[in-house]
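Why predict the complex rather than its parts? Because the way molecules touch one another can change local conformation, and only a joint prediction can capture that. The input here totals 1204 residues.
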Amino acid sequence: MVNKYSERIDALRAVMEKNGWDAAVISGSDPHSSEYPAPRWQQVKWLSGFTGEAGDLVITRDHAGLWTDSRYFIQALTQLEGTGVELHKTRVPGAVGIPQWLSGKAKTVVVDGLCWNVDAVKEIADALGEGGLVVDVPDMLEDLWENRPQIPVTPITTLDVDTFGGTPRTEKISWLRKWMLLKGVDRVLLSSLDEIAWTLNVRGSDIEYNPLVISYLLVSQDDVKWFVKKGVADDPDTLDSFSELEMDGVEVEDYDAVFFALSDFSSEQSPVTLFIDPSTLNHHINTYIQDAYPAERIVCGTSPVILEKAVKTPSEIESMRQTYIDDGVAMECFLHWLETEVATGREVDEWEASERLTQFRAQIPGYRGNSFENISAYGPGAALPHYSTPREGSAVIRPFGLYLVDSGGQYLTGTTDITRTVPMGDCTDLEKEDYTLVLKGMIDLSMAVFPRGTAGCQIDSIARMPLWKKMRNFGHGTGHGIGYYLCVHEGPQSIRYQYNPQPLLPGMVTSNEPALYREGMHGVRHENIVLCREAGISEFGDWLDFETLTCCHFDTSAVVPEILGPEALEWLNDYNAWVYRTLAPLLPADTAAWLRDKTMPI
Amino acid sequence: MVNKYSERIDALRAVMEKNGWDAAVISGSDPHSSEYPAPRWQQVKWLSGFTGEAGDLVITRDHAGLWTDSRYFIQALTQLEGTGVELHKTRVPGAVGIPQWLSGKAKTVVVDGLCWNVDAVKEIADALGEGGLVVDVPDMLEDLWENRPQIPVTPITTLDVDTFGGTPRTEKISWLRKWMLLKGVDRVLLSSLDEIAWTLNVRGSDIEYNPLVISYLLVSQDDVKWFVKKGVADDPDTLDSFSELEMDGVEVEDYDAVFFALSDFSSEQSPVTLFIDPSTLNHHINTYIQDAYPAERIVCGTSPVILEKAVKTPSEIESMRQTYIDDGVAMECFLHWLETEVATGREVDEWEASERLTQFRAQIPGYRGNSFENISAYGPGAALPHYSTPREGSAVIRPFGLYLVDSGGQYLTGTTDITRTVPMGDCTDLEKEDYTLVLKGMIDLSMAVFPRGTAGCQIDSIARMPLWKKMRNFGHGTGHGIGYYLCVHEGPQSIRYQYNPQPLLPGMVTSNEPALYREGMHGVRHENIVLCREAGISEFGDWLDFETLTCCHFDTSAVVPEILGPEALEWLNDYNAWVYRTLAPLLPADTAAWLRDKTMPI
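Output of the joint prediction:
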């Protein structure tokens, strides 16, 4: 079979053969370890057609494989048809990762060192063992990829902390410098885009859904150098932002100048020590650092910005509370519209529903776009955890069964993420049972109280146990951190089955989204966003719990009360009553009246 | 203040000063990393008077400290009074372990290398840093300790697997040899007494409560050498055991000959590789090994016997099921006796109750002693998780409030462990609430279903959440592994708040014992023993759950049904009905009639 993807893979193979490379490993990320790469770096998509958010390719002379996780198994099988690319499952028992797979199969492996982090390349090199070689060819696909997109350059804006919450950049830089003193390092190089955006209080739109600016940041006790494309420097907002930054002591330099800045170690008057985070720093830039700095002058570790960013400040929390109420207004308007349209017999398809939701959200003050691609899925489509709604020919939403909508907005005052599964009319017993079991898990986790020091992986089973008792499960995490007008997925905390020792701390904002997927039938996911907070102190210790930020009712028509149990039922009724009380004054009268009915206690 | 303990400590200090030792670190264990050391090795007790099961001492010129965990905080404060020994808390947030504490305070530290494992000594040496020195003085206290007990020598018996379940020793040795081939080692040295007893199917009574024989075992592809005290070799059972072992190819050698056996590496015809487990092997014997074997010929790791022993065979499981029923007969007879005595106004104290329980247990066929010291505690005494009932002047059990009894038997067909908290009459609301919350946690964990691969630490929160929601907690683990006519505490699995990656496997037998302690008031602990088993396979994976082995009713008089909730209440009624159904035919008529009343559904 031949299609444009298999042709591209063959073209790459020809280059590999010419150069004596046994395998090419293509990253699904960019030079900044971003979850969503800009089009320029969507190399996996260009080579294979796969559009999932997580996936890496390995091409050898006789094999082409895509490594991705359970969220994308079904999607991958569809999208890879005819490409010759085979699916390799990750995060399943007995999974073989790329490094182990390569071991024994390849000696010389080529990577685009810009798009792989230091740790990942080291893992590959270690797996190849003695005699193995990792060749770094930055922009490896450049010559094959006609009209490859450029590095994006979009207007840059700075955040006004007085209006939108957060901490002034000068304070953040002071905090970082204090950390550097304690750590005994002279310079910190940041390359993760959300860490940079957080530190400088800057936002852009270089990457879809993520309000980020492609750049590097180098901080020392004396100066702060921001390496960024200046292409739209004639944009007035960008110009203002640059002057504001410079007034705060941030030197704005060209993106590519970072290589020179890192290479001038020898010109330093006294030896300096550089801190890097090899789990996000790209391999290519690291080769410059390794050449310029003596090994003992490079300190590796986890960037301190990650944890600091995850713990929201009181002003950020206050803003997020309001933002989630505003976002709830859009959601309720959408859900009311959808129910009315479908009930009156109009043929609304998934795509139209998705577009309409975005329109409702766009009316919220401070809206700056969606925080990820809307998942608008009816029936079997919802069984794909990360279903991508097709623009043409998407499924029509019928007045029965389950419709799942997972969406979120970027607002100047926070990032939102919410999933509701909507019973569109009659549901089967199995749909109701799944709907209720997942809801019970979500509620049980919402009600959890836990000692300070508890990590998300220690309470993950609370959300899963109602499903587990019926021998049902879902393949993804229960909760991810959420940024403040930043990435919709952020660390370091998570609520997962897998071990992650990071304790949940007061101020962390995390999703709570258990689910269930039945291929070819239906999918259920209920997602609220919860804020970890102090619950009190007792003679038995210091306690934390969750405050739910998301403000949007759960439909009770598919709830089986006996499955939910009295405690969760009470929570549900209380929650729906709070949603009505909070949103009714903000909603159009007909939507408010409709919501009153939807939130009646059961 | 001066008492006999402070005098002994001062005597040790004089020796330390003479030798130029800054600190002496005294272990609460023996040369085999046993949890319960024989009297000879109860050095912590001899020096400080502390009798807890876990505790190590550090003596410096100006400080004496006992390191122990929350189970013994209250006990330690009482027992250490007047000794000058201060309590250092372990397993609490911010706890400073012995190695860190020594760091900077001492340069030369003396240890009895026989009683510290290799890892522990390495940790101390690492903490001392450059210029630090760990001096190994085996039997360090020998000269100070008048009439120090000898190494115990008790009759040895072998288990008849046809009668009592288990696997023949020849099969176990074959299994170990296969493991050695796969691991690429020529010899395995076992020093943990329960690993040796399991491998050889031998039992003794060298250690109170644990049917073990003090010995070492050295296994190669060609021979099996058991190093053991032969002092009672004129005992006919012991003689029979030795011949039986020798018929199976086990050479019985003298205990001390292990040092020679390990030192003869240079006489080997071809170089051999030795496997040791540095987490249990004592430091002193390791110095012999390090002298005799080149470093590359010593392989360190976790002994494979630990996991193999923890996964009970079908015949062991069958025997344990019956043993737990027999043990339940003793428990119900005891509980009936206790209730009757107290109700009729007799003054039964904790000690008498404990003795009576042992008498009931001693009537069970196959009984070989208790598996640990009975905890028989009324009222405030029960607030000490490991209360030691005094022979004289123990509390009288009154017809109100809570009595806690934690006990277990050693039987030829298994080891038991059970805790019941008994409402003796009227209880306060707080007693009832605590009683019910702990019971709910125990029941929730009993009902858990989980995917294959799940570790105990991932479901620990299931047992704690009812307490956590009321900001209550307990400081010990929820569950420990249990041996088969071996130690009542064994690994590698556990159900704990702390991380332990060992998955729960079908065949593992573990305790389920959440609790709550209110100092000066009352204590609640409910403990059943559960068997992990296969629950089924679904489209969502492979599932495990628990079968409860313990067969003894829970008193419902202190249960608050609304706190328990409908699901746990149904479990409780079903469980009590099963206990009655199972035990009634085995009980005296009056006890059976009493049990019928006690197990009526609520």
